[in-house]
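G.,

No rush on this.
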Amino acid sequence: MNYRDYFNIDPEYFSSINQAVIDSNPDIWEKYYPHETFVKLIKDTVNVLSRKQKLSIWVEGSYGTGKSHAVLTLKRLLDASEEDTHAYFEKYPEQLNHDLYNQFQRLKSGENKIITVHRYGSSSIYNDNSLVYALQESIEQALSDNGIKSKGAVALKESVIAWLSQP
C-alpha cells in the first residue's frame, strides 16, 4: 500500500517552491494554508506598513519549512486585487478574521502605493557586498516592473563615491 491509498494528496502539491514552480503556477499562493506563524507574518506586515514596528521583517527557518511559499503568498496578497485578497481571507475564516482583512486592505488601498520586492534564493550571495548588490538589483527590478524609472542605483553609487572620497 502507498500513502496515496490512505490520504488525499493534492495532485498539484509541490514539496518545495522554487522559481520554476512560481513561474509555471502563478496562482499557487491561493492554496497556502494560513497557519499560526503565517497569520503572525501578516500581522507583522500590517504593523510594519502602519509604522507600528521596525520597517523590516525577517523570515527564517530550516529547509523545507515553507518559507518561500509563505513569502510568495504574502507578496501575492499585497499585490492582489481587493477581490482576490478578500477571497483568500474568506477561504480561511477561522485563521484570518475580518478585522485583520480590514486592516490589511486599508493599508493596501491607502494613498501610498505598496511595491513588493521579491527575490528567490540566496545562492549568489556570498558576502555583504553581494547582499547589497542583490537587494539593489531586486529593488530596481520591482520599480521597473511598476513603471517607475528609478535613480536609486545612481544615488547609491554617488553616496558610496562621496563616502570613499572623505579623508
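When you get to it, here's the other one too:
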Amino acid sequence: PGVVAAFLVPGSPLPLMRRDNPPWTPLAEGMEKARDALRAAKPDVLVIYSTQWLAVLDQLWQEKPRISGIHVDENWHELGNLRYDIRIDTSLSRDCIDGCREEGITAKGVNYDGFPVDSGTITACAFLNPHGETPAVIAANNLYFDFEKTRKLGEIAVAQAVAQGKRVAVIAVGGLSGTIFRREIDFAADRIASDGDDAWNRDILHMLEKGDAAGLAEAVPLFAKDARAEMGFKHYAFLLGALGGSFAGAKVLAYGPTYGAGAAVVEFRL
C-alpha cells in the first residue's frame, strides 16, 4: 500500500476536445504517456484533486458510487460535449471525510444525481482512466484553504488509503501560468501569453524535474503572484502532501499553451 504513481496534469479540456490542433497535440500525447505509466503502476484507486471543483464552506468529497452524464464546458461549449462515467471508491471517500474531521477540517460527502462534475476532473479521467477501470476518490478545491491546508488534504487522503491497504495514484489537476487571451485568437496560433509567464513555467518545471521541494517552497508564492498561477498552484500542494513532502524528481511529458495559459503533464519519481 501507498503511493505508486503521481501526476500533475492540465484541467483544460482543449487538448481533449481538439487534439488535432498543433499547439495542443503534444499535451494530448503527454496525457497518453501518463495513462500508460498509470496503468503500469497498477493502482487500486485514483486520488484526484481538481482546481476546477470549487467549494466555499466545507471540504467536499465525491461520495456517489457512480457519476456519469454529459458535460458542457462553460468556456468551450462550441467545441462539443464531454461524456463521463466515473466510479467512486465510496469507502475511501468516507474515510477521507472522517480523516479531515479528526484533523479539525470540516468535511462532507456529495451524493446526488446530476452533480455538476467539473471539466478538469472529466478531462483527467477521459485521458488517464478512459474506461473507468480504476475507481477514484475526488476532492474539491476549497477556495478558502491556503497552500498548507491543501497540502494536509493530500496527506490525509493517502494516510486513509494506506490504512485500507490500497495502492494509490495521485492526480493533481490544474495548470501553470494563468493568463489567458482576452481576445479571440486562431487556435492554431496559440502560445503562452507572455515571455515572463513562459520563463516562470519553465523554472517551475525545472525544479520539479530536480525534485527541489525546498526551492519550490520559496518560488511558488512568487510564481502565483507574478504568473497568476492557477489557484495559487494549490494542486501541487495537494500532491506534495500526498507524497509526504518530498519526491525524487519528475519527468515533464508535455508542456504547452491552453489559450495563453500554461499547461504541463508531469510524471513524478517517487
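The two ends are 14 Å apart (CA to CA). Helices lie at 14-17, 25-41, 90-102, 119-128, 147-163, 195-210, 213-226, 234-242.

Enjoy the weekend,
O.
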